[in-house]
Amino acid sequence: MSRIAITWISIGIAATTGIICGEFAASSVVLHDKLGTICGRGHLLALVRDRGIYQADLDRTLAEFHYLAGTDHGQERNLQRQSALTDLIANAAARAHGRSEKILRTEMEHELSLLRSQFRDDKTWRLALNASDLSESSLWRMLRNDFGSRQWISKRIPPELDVTEGECRRFYGSHLENFFVPERLRVSHLFLAAPPETAPEIVEAKHAAIEALSVQLAGGEDFATLAAQNSEDEATKLRGGDLDYFSAARMPPDFVAAALKLRPGEISRPIRTRLGFHILKLIDVQAARQKTFDEARNDIAIELTNQKRAAAIQKLMVDLNSEAGYLRPL
């Protein structure tokens, strides 16, 4: 079973059990807390309208986060717990608002079809549902809740947020360093690998080989041909060793220093870096420059749109969390 599908269905366990434990309970915090204990959900952590969020919901959310992220850092656990509870509260409030949304059945059927397509056949699909204590009707209800909350949220955070020309120009003026393009070199290299752990006799053989290639180049042999035949940089050898344009920060300092001593078209003597032996051919140098506003405009608009969307999401999260009628301190 795919990891995405397992996680998706696992989340459903928490949601479905939360419905069972919270749907028919009175709004009393004490009753919800007792009901959580009876249902094996643990203490009530938050009450959002008529829905309870319990310790088991938080534990499961954290376990899924650690499973997907592959981490469980003890020092970050308290922050993760608070963040997970905040998300659970916001999701519960959004689901409550989403109940009034009108959802097209065809959209839900398409989503269900995508989920089922992750399983090789109907038998595997039903086994997965049974293993997760889910029925198709409860899964359908989860889909309805999910679609409703997403649709409700999308109305409050539109996909397109207006960014004005003035906002873009102010951002450009106050972030000029973001649009500085450093000097860039275009270099081809002929490379023989000899990292620090290489045995001395192999280093000696590679050194002799690179010197022999240097002699061939001095005699008029074609650089691209020799690179294709001899270079051990598999990513570039078939294009004549061409590394394309790069800034100095991307390459070892001694590599850059050797390249800067050349004029376009010149070929270096063999050099050694921490990676091995190189012969360089400088193709071009692009001087450092500042991007114009017109060049940067689209990137700025995207950045400001993302900032506005993040701020809108954060505000919505705060608003949704304020709907919790009860919140137990963690």
Spell out the key features of this protein:
single chain; 330 residues; alpha+beta; Triger factor/SurA peptide-binding fold; Chitinase A, domain 3; 4-stranded antiparallel β-sheet; 14% strand; elongated; disordered N terminus
Question: Brief overview, please?
Answer:
The protein has 330 residues and is of the alpha+beta class.
Description:
The chain is of the alpha+beta class. It has 2 domains: 172 residues, Triger factor/SurA peptide-binding fold (Orthogonal Bundle); 105 residues, Chitinase A, domain 3, CATH 3.10.50.40. Helix content is 56%, strand content 14%. The protein has 12 helices and 9 strands. The strands form 3 sheets. It has a 4-stranded antiparallel beta sheet with strand order 5-4-7-6, sandwiched between helices. Strands 2-1-9 form a 3-stranded antiparallel beta sheet, sandwiched between helices. It has a two-stranded antiparallel sheet with strand order 3-8. A hairpin with a 3-residue loop joins strand 6 and strand 7. Helix 1 runs antiparallel to helix 3. The relative contact order is 0.12. The N terminus is likely disordered.
Number of strands: 9
Structural class: alpha+beta
Measure the end-to-end span: 34 Å
Helical fraction equals: 55-70%
CATH class of the largest domain: Mainly Alpha
CATH architecture of the largest domain: Orthogonal Bundle
Shape: elongated
User: With helices defined by DSSP (H or I, 4 residues minimum), what is the helix count?
Assistant: 12
Query: In what order do the strands lie side by side in the largest sheet?
Result: 5-4-7-6
What is the number of independent domains? 2
Binned strand content: 5-15%
CATH topology of the largest domain: Triger factor/SurA peptide-binding fold
Uncertain runs are 1-27
Mean pLDDT: 85
Rg to the nearest angstrom? 30 Å
Major sheet: 4 strands, antiparallel
